[in-house]
Design a protein that fits this description.
Layout lengths: L1 H18 L8 H9 L31 H27 L11 H11 L5 E6 L2 E2 L3 E3 L7 E2 L1 H12 L3 E6 L2 H9 L5 E2 L7 H4 L2 E3 L4 E2 L4 E5 L16 E5 L3 H9 L4 E5 L2 H9 L5 E4 L1 H10 L3 E3 L11 E2 L2 E3 L7 H13 L2 H17 L9
Parallel strand pairs: 1-5, 1-6, 10-11, 10-12
Antiparallel strand pairs: 2-3, 3-4, 6-15, 7-15, 8-14, 9-12, 9-13
Helix pairs in contact: 5-11, 5-12, 10-12
């Protein structure tokens, strides 16, 4: 009978470890627990666990926020030099005392509740922060949003008596997520098109950019004097934007390369994987001014006029936001606020667009 209970106890402990995702080689946590609690001992060679699976970072399916590239870059740095940084982190953590509370403190819970509570309703903006000077991260930790569209959204939220909350996502997923109710409005240097109007409603225009421009390597700029010069060349554009149509409809013979992030497009250009990319005029100027290796192709003058930017809301405007948004846009225009917003964005966006072969776009 004693043997039965001993075996049963061992089985229960084994199953508990399985549920927690423990492996046979993962003994450091067990040893640490035993060191801090005299009532615990480490049982070795009880179960054959087999090979240990490496830990990984999980992101949402399809990586809609475009995080994996940065995550994998950071992991590569952490694991370089035989994992020197990882070992440094392990040693630091091992030297620290740990405390695992049985429950969350009521004081902490109350603080979180107070932080989340607000007298103002929340206005959630969806954007793709890879497009300076319109939307980008102003800090290396990617926690501070900045840009012309961000300032516009702040102004609109304040005018409507609401608190602004910003959510980031790849541009090509914004309209779908808007329709799914993930946010209330989209500001992302977004033009009205008949195709987009089938899925969402648009505000009055709030700004018109410079016409679209073509970025190329500076040492090859004189090769592209007309759009016909791009025949047989690889030309990049952001997925689901009007820039794709420019490549396919106006640059006859060019081979379209679509990518979700503008920063990826710029990297492709810098590394010579594409011959050119098409972006909005202000964006092209930002990258060309910040990076001597890039230039605006003379052929850009053939691309025609710019289309105005609008704010998108869910089809049918189910939350009744458009009247307030349009009223705020009219007030913003009468106060000439855009000049102020553009100046603030330009001051910050230079840091966001510096990119060379040695220092790719973030």
């Amino acid at each position: 009978m004693k043997k039965f209970f001993a075996m049963l106890l061992a089985l229960v402990m084994a199953l508990s470890l399985v549920a927690c995702g423990q492996k046979a080689d993962d003994t450091k946590k067990d040893d640490a627990a035993a060191d801090t609690d005299d009532s615990l001992v480490v049982l070795e060679n009880v179960v054959d666990w087999g090979e240990t699976e490496p830990y990984r970072v999980l992101v949402q399916k399809g990586d809609p926020k475009g995080l994996l590239e940065g995550i994998n870059k950071a992991i590569a740095e952490l694991t370089a030099n035989d994992g020197a940084l990882i070992k440094e982190i392990e040693n630091k953590v091992a030297s620290q005392e740990t405390y695992t509370p049985d429950s969350v403190s009521s004081d902490l819970a109350a603080a979180d509740k107070d932080a989340a509570a607000s007298d103002k309703p929340v206005l959630v903006m969806g954007t793709s922060p890879d497009y300076p000077p319109y939307e980008f991260f102003a800090d290396a930790a990617m926690t501070e949003y900045a840009g012309i569209d961000v300032e516009v959204a702040k102004y609109i939220a304040e005018s409507m008596g609401m608190t602004l909350q910003i959510e980031s996502m790849n541009f090509d997923n914004l309209v779908t997520s808007l329709s799914n109710g993930d946010f209330d409005m989209v500001l992302a240097a977004c033009e009205y098109t008949e195709e987009r109007a089938k899925a969402c409603d648009f505000s009055d225009p709030y700004y018109t950019d410079l016409p679209a421009m073509i970025l190329v390597k500076a040492d090859a700029a004189d090769q592209y004097n007309t759009l016909a010069d791009f025949a047989g060349k690889s030309v990049g554009a952001q997925t689901a934007t009007t820039k794709e149509a420019i490549v396919t409809d106006e640059m006859e013979g060019a081979n379209l390369v679509s990518l979700s992030l503008v920063t990826d497009l710029v990297n492709e250009l810098v590394y010579g994987k594409v011959d050119a990319i098409v972006v909005d005029g202000a964006v092209a100027e930002q990258y060309a001014e910040a990076n001597p290796d890039l230039a605006i192709a003379p052929a850009s003058s053939e691309l025609g006029e710019a289309m105005p930017y609008c704010i998108a809301v869910a089809k049918g405007d189910p939350k009744g936001l458009l009247p307030g948004i349009n009223e705020a846009i009219a007030k913003m225009t009468s106060e000439n606020k855009m000049e102020e917003f553009i100046a603030a964005a330009d001051e910050l966006s230079g840091k966001a667009v510096e990119v060379t072969a040695d220092a790719p776009a973030a």
